[in-house]
Design goal:
The chain is an alpha/beta fold. It has 3 domains: 95 residues, 3-Layer(aba) Sandwich (Cobalt-precorrin-4 Transmethylase, domain 1), CATH 3.40.1010; 83 residues, 3-Layer(aba) Sandwich (Rossmann fold), CATH 3.40.50; 92 residues, Cobalt-precorrin-4 Transmethylase, domain 1, CATH 3.40.1010.20. It is 41% helix and 18% strand. The protein has a 4-stranded parallel beta sheet with strand order 1-12-10-11, sandwiched between helices. The chain has a 4-stranded parallel beta sheet with strand order 3-2-4-5, covered by helices on one side. Helix 8 packs parallel to helix 9. The protein is flat, with a radius of gyration of 21 Å. The chain starts with a strand and ends in a 6-residue tail after the last helix.
């Protein structure tokens, strides 16, 4: 008989819940129409649900120049975007995660202190792009251990560096790369850490990995924290499969598995987990 286990915690983090409540409140109060700059969170199901309720997703603040409400996504934005939006005749609401907002203040403070900044993060991710747009100086974006070694080969140990991290990276990777930096840079201020929600969800996957043959991870392909959950399972030696929802499930994903784990990324609604759970439980289990 197959056993299905659910990770805890999983799914929406406080930052995502706050961002979605911000949009929900705006849909009740206006002014209308309600625009969101980029995807409010990285989940297609959430975005499509909001679009059906009348939210207009845009890629440039100027698209909201006709008036209404403009909401910044949970990932944060650059100073340039803030300034552009402020010139428009719209109500502007920043739905950035409070932890991301804190990170923005820290990168600005490190620049003001004259530090050379190192940022652990994935180039092109909305959160990283927003952070880079908070400062004028060059930021060294490090997205792998190979990139870290390349940076260290050219780094000046006499300089004062400060290191921060994208909030949704693998906590173990951040700690390991941080130790390497601290070995080589004596004047380093190390302030890189993933957010507690990311860390706790990765810890839950590690616990699940000790009890399961395969772990199904519900979340968008665009979601950084979802990908990190899959990587965490792999690092524990357990096979994982990412699914946007139950519609992506294939029986081959759990073939031969007696114990199946299910978790979800921080921007995946719980209803998607419940539908997948029901699908897995009704999947024939060969003797």
């Amino acid at each position: 008989m197959r056993k299905v286990l659910l990770a805890s915690p999983r799914g929406f983090c406080a930052g995502v819940e706050r961002a979605l409540k911000t949009v929900d409140d705006a849909l009740k109060t206006g002014p209308f129409p309600v625009y969101v700059l980029h995807e409010i969170v990285h989940n297609e199901n959430v975005v499509e649900s909001l679009r059906r309720r009348g939210v207009i997703f845009i890629d440039d603040p100027e698209e909201a120049a006709g008036g209404g409400t403009l909401i910044f996504s949970a990932h944060g934005v650059s100073r340039e975007v803030e300034e552009k939006a402020a010139r428009l005749k719209v109500r502007v609401i920043d739905a950035a995660c409070p932890i991301v907002k804190s990170l923005q203040r820290r990168i600005e403070a490190f620049e003001a202190d004259g530090c050379e900044i190192i940022l652990f993060g994935k180039k092109g991710h909305r959160e990283v792009e927003g952070l880079l747009g908070r400062v004028h100086s060059t930021v060294h974006v490090v997205d792998s251990e190979e990139a870290l070694e390349a940076f260290l080969a050219a780094a000046d140990p006499a300089k004062h560096y400060a290191c921060l991290s994208q909030t949704t990276l693998n906590a173990d990777d951040v700690a390991r790369m941080g130790r390497r930096l601290q070995e080589k840079l004596p004047h380093l201020t190390f302030a890189a850490e993933v957010c507690f929600a990311t860390r706790d969800r990765q810890r839950a996957v590690k616990e699940l990995a000790g009890q399961c043959d395969v772990i199904l991870v519900v979340g968008s392909e665009k979601s950084s924290n979802t990908r990190r959950l899959c990587e965490t399972a792999a690092a524990c030696g357990v096979r994982s499969c990412r699914l946007s929802g139950a519609e992506d499930f294939e029986p081959s994903m759990i073939a031969g598995a007696k114990r199946v784990g299910i978790t979800s990324g921080a921007s995946a609604p719980e209803e998607l987990v419940r539908k997948l759970l029901e699908t897995v439980e009704h999947c024939p289990c060969p003797d």
